[in-house]
Design a protein that fits this description.
Chain lengths: 211, 246
């Protein structure tokens, strides 16, 4: 006799979100660290982009003497900036991965328990990715804002009130959108491997692990 | 009505590789557990208790032999079907309670129902009922760290019953509890066993458990040493607990 198993296991998004939020609150310290790592990486990227926007704006709309000064070393500076930003974002991903892996170890018993209660691997992945998504969104929005503010302050200091008149608002908003999306994307990328590891945990072993 | 077997194992063997040497943990286990039975699996550490337990719970597959849970051969199931089995057919109770720390008692018990696709309202009502049955109707919104060990284990029992499973697997359920609380938990398990006619299988060192078990399976070195019916168990639990009279 072989009984047919009716397949139905669900984790509604509402519940998943609720659980993620609880997880974030419970591990607030770690969440802040992960968010900070994204924030710093994105703030750096945003400041570089804002810097470019200001420079271009000055070249197009600014006075002649500044224009010539800025044109001279534009190319060289740009190449160096790309390298630095790429490296900092890479470090940022590795940092997220590291922190999330620690989180997996810390929560292995919880994960094992959920699997015993019928959670599918994908539920576990979903929870981790949702958490990371939250880190990514908050970190990169804050990072973008901080980047813009910093660069505006620097230019205000250098060029004074002139910068208000040539403020490249459209360009800045465009860049901010880009950095926010990129930051969120990177946070999720960083969480992929840890969430895979957590989903693959053997429940029998995970529930007995002492952390 | 003849009693139906809810768990059957046929010649179950399990070995692990210990470095390059195979370690035979189970050396051929044949047991049949009937619907509504209360079974205790006893044996010293290293007797294969936990391994056998994992097999019956669908957490591990045998190297040789067959394990049938409710007439389904677990070796034939894929990951999804195993998860489904764990969700619907089996309730787990652990020595360390293993409640989800960030969730209240109510949410902990609701979780398996949510996995099973039950609506929020329906599962909330059912959960309240279950928590009342285990005597925690007044503790619905407390988090695990606000509950005592015995209360946490009661929540865990309610959670194990969430989807009306056919089997409850309890791994050393009284291992982290004091004598009196342990006794209460055992009695509660027995009540659930009678009231809901769910089979209870415990792996335990706790001799208090013998008193309520229908059968006791003694394991030694990966083999069944003996199986005792309750009538033949001659340990009087009361005599072993000096501090608890009456």
């Amino acid at each position: 006799m072989d009984k047919k198993i009716e397949k139905q296991l669900t984790l509604p998004l509402k519940n998943a979100l609720q659980m993620s939020v609880r997880g974030l609150k419970a591990r607030f310290g770690r969440s802040i660290i992960i968010t900070m790592s994204i924030l710093l990486g994105i703030a750096f990227l945003m400041s570089v982009l804002a810097n470019n926007a200001f420079t271009m704006s000055l070249i197009h709309k600014g006075p002649e003497n500044i224009k010539i000064l800025l044109m001279t070393d534009l190319e060289e500076v740009r190449t160096r900036q790309i390298w630095l930003v790429s490296l900092s974002l890479l470090v940022c991903i590795v940092g997220i991965m590291n922190a999330m892996l620690m989180s997996v170890t810390e929560r292995s018993r919880e994960i094992g328990t959920m699997k015993c209660l019928g959670a599918l691997d994908k539920f576990i992945v979903e929870l981790f990715l949702l958490e990371s998504l939250a880190h990514g969104v908050f970190g990169s929005i804050a990072g973008s804002i901080i980047g813009v503010i910093t660069m505006t302050a620097v230019y205000l200091f250098q060029y004074g009130g002139l910068i208000i008149h040539i403020f490249p608002l459209g360009k800045i908003l465009q860049y901010a959108l880009f950095t926010t999306l990129l930051g969120t994307f990177l946070a999720v990328i960083g969480a992929l491997y840890p969430s895979y590891v957590s989903a693959r945990l053997d429940p029998a072993e995970a529930i007995r692990r002492e952390v | 009505m003849p009693k139906e077997a809810i768990v059957r194992t046929i010649g179950v063997k399990k070995s692990f590789m210990l470095g390059k040497v195979p370690l035979h943990v189970l050396k051929g286990i044949d047991i049949e557990i009937l619907k509504g039975e209360y079974i205790s699996i006893m044996g010293p550490s290293g007797s294969g208790k936990t391994t056998l337990f994992n097999m019956i719970g669908g957490l591990d597959k045998p190297s040789e032999g067959k394990v049938y849970i409710d007439e389904v051969d677990i070796a034939q199931l894929d990951a999804y079907e195993l998860a489904w089995l764990r969700c619907r057919k089996i309730g787990y109770i652990f020595q360390t309670f293993n409640l989800i720390p960030v969730m209240t008692a109510l949410e902990n018990v609701m979780l398996p129902m949510i996995f099973a696709g039950m609506s929020a309202d329906e599962s909330r009502e059912k959960t309240k009922g279950l928590l009342e049955t285990v005597g925690l109707g007044h503790r619905l919104h407390h988090k695990p760290f606000e509950l005592s060990g015995g209360q946490q284990q009661r929540v865990a029992i309610a959670r194990a019953l969430a989807n009306d499973p056919a089997i409850i697997l309890a791994d050393e359920p009284t291992g982290n509890l004091d004598l009196k609380t342990g006794k209460e938990i055992i009695n509660l398990l027995r009540e659930m066993n009678k009231g809901k006619s769910v089979s209870i299988i415990t792996a335990t060192h706790d001799l208090k458990m013998l008193d309520v078990s229908d059968r006791v399976i003694w394991l030694r070195d990966g083999m069944i040493e003996r199986v005792e019916d309750r009538e033949n168990i001659h340990i009087k639990v009361g005599e072993m607990e000096g501090e608890e009279s009456g």
